[in-house]
Amino acid sequence: MTTDLDSVRAELIASVDAADSLDALEAARVAAVGKKGSVGALMKQLGALPAEERKDFGQSVNAVKQAVEAAIAARKETLESGALDARLAAERVDVTLPVRPESEGRIHPISQTIDEIVQIFGEMGFRVAEGPDLENDWRNFTALNIPEEHPARQEMDTFYLRADAEGNRPVLRTHTSPVQIRTMMNEAPPIRIIAPGRTYRSDHDATHSPMFHQVEGLVIDEAIHMGHLKGCLIEFCRTYFEVHDLPVRFRNSHFPFTEPSAEVDIGCTRDSGELKIGAGDDWLEILGSGMVHPKVIENCGLDPAKYQGFAFGMGIERIAMLKYGIPDLRTFYDSDLRWLKHYGFVPQDIPGALGGLHR
Ligand code: PHE
């Protein structure tokens, strides 16, 4: 009796193709080509055959075995890629969802505001420059065209440290303007920097803190004029306050280190005590600016006949309070977690050009 090998092959391949999981396929494999499987059983018939038929039959059974094994391999590949697809679908992660549980920590409004300022000026081609909190008198005052006995020295309520052996008294910088001096002394124009950092004045009430933050800006090149100053600061004010038609006013002023000088006001309304930034009938002063005084350029070893530029400075707490409606300056330094939870920023809210300054 010989078995119909064609129909055996067809049956085994059908059982392989019917396997709907990797486990079912393994069961079909064992039943077909496993030790005690159908193909093994056929091989056992070999011994009972007449010698002249054995070779042919053996080769045919082997062909069946190979065909079944090929079908198993093909089915395995299909099931595996299906299993991967199913796993990918089941484990799909929506990366646009907010982090859960929401992170506990908060970015302090001062840090957030500095990040926003750096982002805006960074896109205009400014880079960040730094200087130490402890300065010498020359960089904080003299080089900035504030000589001895100048009233600005008294107005700034300077913290002086004990004099060194040569009689020089270090000062806690009263503004970030000494970073202008450091930059002009160390770098060749064109210069485009902003310098955020801590500043100190001996003053303490609801609108003054002995330590506060400023950001300085400085541009020095060969053909810089007041139009550049205005364009740059108007753009900054509108972007920072996120009011595209925000009125910006340049009001004549005086600083020893700039000539001409201008204080910059933005439009606002104050209806029944509530301050709103935008076109209105009132103005808010937010920064000081001007064309760098030729004497300052000269003090830094640059030729004022060749180079000119503009500078500006503003209080970071002040513009943070205005934008985020923070009523009391002193609360910035209270380290009150409830305050930080309320006014702070989620760490993932990184100010950026694409996502907006903040969410
Ligand atoms: N340094 C000035 C201040 O502290 C601000 C300022 C900087 C003004 C640069 C003009 C130019 O008040």
What's the helix count? 12
Q: Would you report the number of β strands?
A: 10
Q: Please state the CA-atom Rg, rounded to the nearest Å.
A: 39 Å
Largest pleated sheet: 8 strands, mixed
CATH homologous superfamily title of the largest domain: Bira Bifunctional Protein, Domain 2
Which regions are unreliable across 5 or more consecutive residues at pLDDT < 50? Answer: none
H/E element sequence: HHHHHEEHHEHEEHEEEEHEHH
- The fraction of residues in strands falls at 15-25%
Describe this structure in words.
By secondary structure, the protein is of the alpha+beta class. The chain folds into two domains: 2-90; 109-342, 2-Layer Sandwich (BirA Bifunctional Protein, domain 2), CATH 3.30.930. 40% of the residues lie in helices and 20% in strands. The chain contains twelve helices and ten strands. The chain has helices spanning 5-18, 22-33, 38-45, 51-90, 109-123, 137-140, 151-155, 178-186, 226-241, 294-299, 316-324, 337-343; strands at residues 127-128, 134-135, 171-172, 191-200, 211-221, 248-255, 258-271, 274-277, 282-292, 308-315. The strands form two sheets. Strands 1, 4, 5, 6, 7, 8, 9 and 10 form an eight-stranded mixed β-sheet that branches. Strands 2-3 form a two-stranded antiparallel sheet. β6 (248-255) and β7 (258-271) form a beta hairpin. The mean pLDDT is 91. Phenylalanine is lined by residues 175, 177, 216, 255, 258, 288-290, 311-313.
